[in-house]
Amino acid sequence: MDPHFRSFHTATVKSSDGTEITMLVQDYTP
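The chain above was modelled as a monomer; its predicted structure follows.
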C-alpha cells in the first residue's frame, strides 16, 4: 500500500432505520 497514492478515512453513514454504520473508505489520489 503506497500512501502517496492511497489514503483511508472513516465515514459514518446513517441508514434509513436510524442505525449508524462506520465504514472505512479508500481514496485514490492522483
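The chain has one domain: 1-30.
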